[in-house]
Write a structure and sequence with these properties.
Layout (H helix, E strand, L loop, with lengths): L4 H15 L5 E2 L6 H9 L4 E2 L1
Length: 48
């Protein structure tokens, strides 16, 4: 199984965001599964 590097990074970011409500993510990437999870879980803390 191949894991996209971006998904690994976004998984770590998602974990940090779940622990710290002051963290938000700004992105210029539309195709990462990990980013989709962040956008769904934290729509008010993620912006492109």
């Amino acid at each position: 199984m191949i894991i996209d590097f971006r998904d690994s990074v976004f998984s770590a970011v998602e974990e940090i965001m779940s622990k710290d409500k002051d963290v938000l993510v700004l992105y210029n990437d539309m195709g990462a599964v990990g980013l989709d999870k962040i956008r769904n879980e934290f729509p008010h803390r993620s912006r492109n």
